[in-house]
Amino acid sequence: MNSQKTWILCCFFNFLIACVFGLLMRLMYLLPIDFLNYSFLLHAHSHVAMLGWVYLIVYVLVVHFFIPKEKSQKPIYNRLFWLTEFSVIGMMIAFPIQGYALFSIVFSTLHILLSYVFCRLVWKDCSRDKSPSQRLLLVSVLFMILSTFGVWCLGPAVSTLGKQSAFYQIAIQFFLHFQFNGWFILAILALFLKQFQAKIDEVKFKKFYYLIIISTLLTVTFPIRWFVENDFLSYINVLGVLIQLGAFIYFYKMLKPQIKYFKDALDKTTKIVYGLALCSLFLKVGIQLLTIFPNLAIVSHQIRNFVIGFIHLTTLGIITGFLFGILLQNEMLSVNSSTLRIGVKCFILGYIATEVLLFLQGLSFFFGEGSIPGYFQSILILSVFLVLGLVLMMISVINFLSCKVSKTL
Fold first, then answer.
1. pLDDT in tens, 50-64
2. What pTM value is reported for the model?
C-alpha cells in the first residue's frame, strides 16, 4: 500500500507541474518571458497533464481496484510505473526547451510503448469477474490502443504532406478524441462503477455500454469535419451525439436506485467533488448536443476560448473530479486533513471561476463584443487558485505519507 501512496504523490507532482506550465502561459499574455516559447510550453502543459497526471493516476487506481492483490504486488507494476514516470519527466524537461523535436518525441514514444505493456498486463491480470465495471475498463483499454494509431500516422503525415496538411491535423484529433472520450472517460466511469456495492442492473448497463461505444466511434467525425468539407460527416456526428445522450440517460437510470445509499456513505468534501464531476459530465453532453447546429459547430472550433474551456471541462471537471472523488472515498487521500479539504475547495474555486471566464470571453467574441476588460489579468489570478489547491493537496499527501512511515518505524 505504501508504494501506491508514493505513486499518488508522484501523480500530484506531475499535475502541479502541468498547472504551473498553464499558469506561465497565462502570465506570458501579460509579461513577455524571453527564455520561454509559448507553443513549446503548451506542448509540455498538455503532455504532462494527460500522460503524467490522468494516465498515471488511472494506472494507480486500475491496479488498486481491478488487479487482484497477489498479482498487483508483482514487481512489474512498480517498475512499469517508474519507467512511465521517467518518460513523463523526460517530456517535462524536453518540451519546454525544444518543443516537438528529437528528445520529446523519444520520451512520448517511450510512454506509448509502456502503455502497451500496461494494456497487456490489465488484460492478463484483471480478475475475470465480467462485472459491468470490468467490461467498461477493458473496452477503455482497447480505445487507448486505437488512439495511438493517430500518433503512428504523424510521421508519415509530416514527411509526405507536412504539418499544415489535413492528414496531420486529423491524426492528432483522432488520438485526442479516443484518448479523452474513449480511454480516459470510460476508464474513469469503470472506476466509478466499481465504487457501487450493490449489483448494477445488467439490462440497463448493456444499453449504456453499447450506446457509449457506438457514440464514441461516431463522434470522431466532429473534429475530422474541421479539416474535411463533407456534410455526411456532420450527420454522422449528429447521430453520435444523440446516441451519447441516450447512453447517459441509461447511465443515470442504471445508477438511480443506488444513488441515495451511495451518497449517504460519503463525507461532505467527497460529495462536492463527485457532484462537480457529474455536473461537468452532463454539461459536456449538453455542449456536444449544441454541435448539432452547423453554425455552433463551426464556432466551437474557431473561438479558442471555447476550445480551452471544453478541454478543461473534460480534464479538470469530469476526469479530475471523478479521480479526486474516488481517492477521497477510499481514503487514499486523508479525508480528515483540513489542509486537504481547503486544497480541494481552492482547486474547485479555480476550476469553476476560470471556466466561467473562458466561456464568457468566448461568448463575447461570438457576439462581436471583443475582449472583456481585464480578462488576462483576471484569468491569471483565478488560475493561481488551481495551483494553490494542488500545493495544499500535495502537502496533505506528504504529511499522510510521513505519518504512515513514522508508524511503521
1. 999 999 999 999 999
2. 0.92
